[in-house]
Amino acid sequence: MPTFGRHICYTPVYSNSKLSFKVTSMDKLFSVEWHDMFVPSLSLLEIFLRGTLTYWVIYLCMRLFRRGTGQLSISDLLLITMISDAAQNAMAGTYNSVTEGAVLILTLLFWDYAIDWMGYKKVIFGKFAKPDPVLLIRNGRLLHKNMEKELIDDEELVALLREKDVDDYTKVKTCYLEATGNISVILKE
Description:
Largest sheet: 4 strands, antiparallel
Number of strands: 7
Oligomer: single chain
Helix content: 40-55%
Distance between the termini: 79 Å
Order of helices and strands: EEEHHHHHHEEHHEE
Structural class: alpha+beta
Strand order of the largest sheet: 5-4-6-7
């Protein structure tokens, strides 16, 4: 059990059957560098620009190369985790203060909201932010060309239809892959 002096902690250490005491400064255990915690080491504008550029690069890559089918798979989650790890240094450089971290988080939240807003208002790139639905089934026939573009095979589509309580795709009038990644199904009458 450690014993305490005024600002020094004496911790017993047993080595080769001998008792000795390791001296630990209490200042190291409980000191807080308030200046380093809140005063940025980088320009806040630089952090905003780094966050903005990295956000747009990741957004464009994800938008151009990924369009899921409603749920995140393990590979999607792994991809997102790896992208976030790889992008961390590009976004932040080396920062230490809470202020810099807060500016970076607010930058990412800003762009996330701005893209949703621009897609909703159809400003600048409404079609790009919210793509048109893709027809996958028409009158009970699978549209393999459209499925191939979206990297959806027959088994995956049949599984998605079962989740919508449709046991046979030949009963489907239309099935679309929506911009959200979900499918919408209209049955034949």
